[in-house]
Structures are given as structure tokens and as C-alpha cells.
Design a protein that fits this description.
This protein is mainly alpha-helical. It has 2 domains: 96 residues, His-Me finger endonuclease fold (3-Layer(aba) Sandwich); 89 residues, no CATH class. It is built from 8 helices and 4 strands; from the N terminus they run H-H-H-E-E-H-E-E-H-H-H-H. The strands form 2 sheets. The protein has a two-stranded antiparallel ribbon. It has a two-stranded antiparallel ribbon with strand order 3-4. Helix 1 packs antiparallel against helix 2 and helix 6 packs parallel to helix 8. The longest helix has 18 residues. The radius of gyration is 19 Å and the shape is elongated.
Length: 220
């Protein structure tokens, strides 16, 4: 997970957000309320989120759009009464994969401070203050470790160390690790590592930790 700057509000929300919230507020039945909330599915909103997150899941940083459409994720669950209006609130919307956002992981969970929350929001928080992106050279595994109570709660709820994800992420980081040993002496190796830390790169949080080790002289 990396920090992502919130993009400008899509034109459709600039024009319609207040109207849509009014319809949610005035809905007389659950069905009417859900229909009003579903305005968030507008193509402009989805396209803006895909661009904002570079087609990656806001949480696990896996690329989505080459294999799936991705979910418009409501950070504060729209199904909870106190968050009904946030169904169409730009600041509450992110792009997520079906695994992180699925019922087996986040679903409608939103723990409060007594429960270890709130969850880390990559569009508001600096994830590096809550997680360590660790590559164990012995086990060759890349794991997300909580370094704060919120971080611990967040990685567990989103399943950021689920086995299939750890395997794919570890395979990626192992290759970067080998390339990083050539960073100071090989221009192509340097270019690969420098590209891997960019916002649009898959698992950039781990690449940035690797780059930090390079800069600290670990590979000299």
C-alpha cells in the first residue's frame, strides 16, 4: 500500500453530488435508498478511480484492469446508516480488487478505535507510518507487517498476507532483489529499480523499501 493523492472530483460529481445525496436522504424505503446510492456506478467515477490508482488495488497494489474491472470501493461502508450519504462522496471512493474488498476480507467491516481502527486509508494516510514492507532473505517471502495498531488491524482485515498474494508478491520482489545488487554498476538495473518505485508500478511499497536499502549501502 502506498499513499495516493486524491484526484480532482469527476465532473459528474461536481454537478450531481448534492442532488444525489438529497435523494439518498429523502428515500422512503431501503430499495429507493439503494437505487439512489447506486449513482456512484457512473462511468466517469470509475474511470477517474482507475486513473487515480493506475489500475491497481488501493490496498494490495496488485494490477487489476488487465484481468478484471475492479470494484469501486467505499472506504466507509455505504450499507451502514451513518455512512449512507458517502455512497456518492468522492473522498470515500477508492479502487479495489475483489479479494481485498470481498466479504472474506473487508466487506462491510469498519472497526473503530476501540477495535483497532480506523483502517488505514491510502488516499488520506501515509501507509509507511503503519506498515513495514518486509522481504525476508531467508524465507524469501514479502510480507506486510503492522508497525501500529491501525496497521496491524488493516493488513489482517484486507488479507494483505493471504497465501496467493504473498507468493505472487514474493516472486516479484525476489527478482527485484537480484536486480538491486547491480544498481550501482548497471544502468539497466538502475532503470528497472527506479521504475519499480513509481506510483503506477505493482507492489511499489516493497520496491521503495528495497530502494531505501540500496541507498543505505546494503548492496554496495
Amino acid at each position: 500500500m502506498i499513499h495516493v493523492l486524491r484526484a480532482p472530483k469527476p465532473p459528474i460529481l461536481v454537478a450531481k453530488e448534492a442532488q444525489w445525496k438529497s435523494k439518498i436522504r429523502g428515500a422512503s424505503t431501503d430499495k429507493n435508498r439503494q437505487e439512489a446510492q447506486d449513482r456512484y456506478k457512473h462511468d466517469q467515477i470509475k474511470n477517474s478511480l482507475v486513473a487515480m490508482f493506475h489500475g491497481k488495488c488501493a490496498y494490495c497494489e496488485s494490477q487489476i484492469t488487465h484481468i478484471d474491472y475492479g470494484h469501486i470501493e467505499h472506504f466507509k461502508p455505504k450499507s451502514l446508516p451513518k455512512y449512507f450519504l458517502l455512497a456518492v462522496d468522492w473522498d470515500n471512493l477508492l479502487l479495489a480488487c475483489g479479494r481485498c474488498n470481498g466479504s472474506e476480507n473487508k466487506g462491510v467491516k469498519f472497526p473503530n478505535s476501540k477495535q483497532g481502527g480506523p483502517l488505514v486509508n491510502p488516499a488520506e494516510d501515509d501507509p509507511s507510518q503503519h506498515f513495514k514492507f518486509d522481504f525476508d532473505k531467508t524465507t524469501r517471502l514479502a510480507n506486510v507487517l503492522g508497525i501500529s495498531k491501525r496497521g496491524e488491524t488493516t493488513w489482517r482485515i484486507f488479507g494483505l498476507n493471504r497465501p496467493e498474494l504473498v507468493q505472487r508478491r514474493s516472486d516479484f520482489v525476489k527478482k527485484l532483489w537480484v536486480i538491486a545488487t547491480r544498481y550501482q554498476v548497471d544502468a539497466e538495473a538502475k532503470a528497472i529499480i527506479d521504475a519499480a518505485v513509481m506510483d503506477d508500478a505493482e507492489y511499489a511499497a516493497f520496491a521503495r523499501e528495497l530502494k531505501r536499502l540500496v541507498d543505505s549501502g546494503v548492496f554496495n
